[in-house]
Amino acid sequence: MKRRDFGQYCGLARALELVGERWALLIVRDLTIRPRRYTDLQAGLPGIPTNVLATRLKELEQAGVVERRVAPAPQRGVVYALTPVGQELEPALLALGRWGAAQLGDPQPGDHVSAEGVTLNLRAAFRPAEAEGVTASFEIHARDIVLHAVLTDGKLESGVGPAPGKPDLTITAQIADDELASYRAIIRAAKCGLVDLAGRRELLETFLKVFTPARPAS
Amino acid sequence: MKRRDFGQYCGLARALELVGERWALLIVRDLTIRPRRYTDLQAGLPGIPTNVLATRLKELEQAGVVERRVAPAPQRGVVYALTPVGQELEPALLALGRWGAAQLGDPQPGDHVSAEGVTLNLRAAFRPAEAEGVTASFEIHARDIVLHAVLTDGKLESGVGPAPGKPDLTITAQIADDELASYRAIIRAAKCGLVDLAGRRELLETFLKVFTPARPAS
DNA sequence: CTGCATCCACTTTGATACTG
DNA sequence: CAGTATCAAAGTGGATGCAG
Description:
Chain A has 218 residues and is of the alpha+beta class. In chain A, 41% of the residues lie in helices and 21% in strands. Chain A has helices at 11-19, 24-33, 38-44, 50-62, 84-87, 90-102, 115-125, 128-131, 183-191, 203-211; strands at 36-37, 66-71, 77-82, 136-142, 145-152, 155-160, 169-173, 195-199. Chain A has 2 domains: 11-88, Orthogonal Bundle (Arc Repressor Mutant, subunit A), CATH 1.10.10.10; 115-211, SCP2 sterol-binding domain (Nonspecific Lipid-transfer Protein, Chain A), CATH 3.30.1050. In chain A, a hairpin with a 5-residue loop joins strand 2 and strand 3. At the A-B interface, helix 1, helix 2, helix 6 and helix 7 of A face helix 1, helix 2, helix 6 and helix 7 of B.
């Protein structure tokens, strides 16, 4: 059942042994946003075979990255969440995501976007230096995706779904019917003014400064 | 020949499609230190099947991460090196390596350490905040491994082999015969004073401050 | 309906041998 | 030195089954 390890006493090799297998880091990505049920994970990872998902969850649990919780009274069921060790993967996830985002070409037909993916890309694009001292809350809508980003004195809290309170600015990206509601598409729309704004419209400029990725990748 | 992609338009998914396959990031790690020949890579990656190495190198070249150079006159042969795109993977490698280093237990019998692995771990353990303004050069010896770390006004240059000039401090870790010359073992030896020092001995303290990983992992 | 387990065709990996 | 060839074993993707 255990895949052979790399035989190297090295941090990178260890990391790859623990979370380097196919689909593993995408599962961790989805759990980074919030705990999820088995079926939520399946829905967010289109194409993952159910047995692979089950296997990965067991391996990640074994590795101490993921925790399996049996939800009690309210809505019984199984919930998967990151352990503290798993949460510490986020810097690595963001670094990899940043690099990968720069290598993204155009979306392939059939490509999928999830709110989790968009949120990760937003976090990866976050520039603390530009956000210094900024306090503002944003809610972003793109087709059926909704996420929020709350800046409190330069600190970012972000996640899927509407903002906790009333957002200072709500950005609704105009996404064509044949276009993916990807992070890139949202930023592109915002840059071109193809957005509906509600609230303090002047904050759009701030949003773009704080959340625009380094290189729009050509 | 192409492995199915993840069907997500997301930076992380893209990164995993490009460098997420088995052995790929370890190959990139070795090339991060310096360009290498096919047989060097084989030697540094104990256990990698030769056909897998050949396949990965082709895929990484295809992905624009690795460049295959046919060395000209001096010592003819093939050399693999990272492209600029590949070099930009280093932050992600360090982040993953840092996380993995925190999850390292004790070395398993049969584990291997390479100078490249130790160098990566040293880079991952580097704390710019502690190095602020520091200028000093170190050469580290542990059994048959030699590497150097040169700080110039807080900026780090490091690699395998002896330091470019005469190092300010040469640290020779006393590693038991049955112990791996891993980064962890080197730091442990340095902390316990089990080192031979040559040069400005008082710099050992600086070295430890600048290069000690956050959590020795219990 | 959720949360998997099983089965099977197919692909990738690992180990070894061999070649220009 | 720099790979290619071959083949068994393991892993993956897809479909389906099934208990709570």
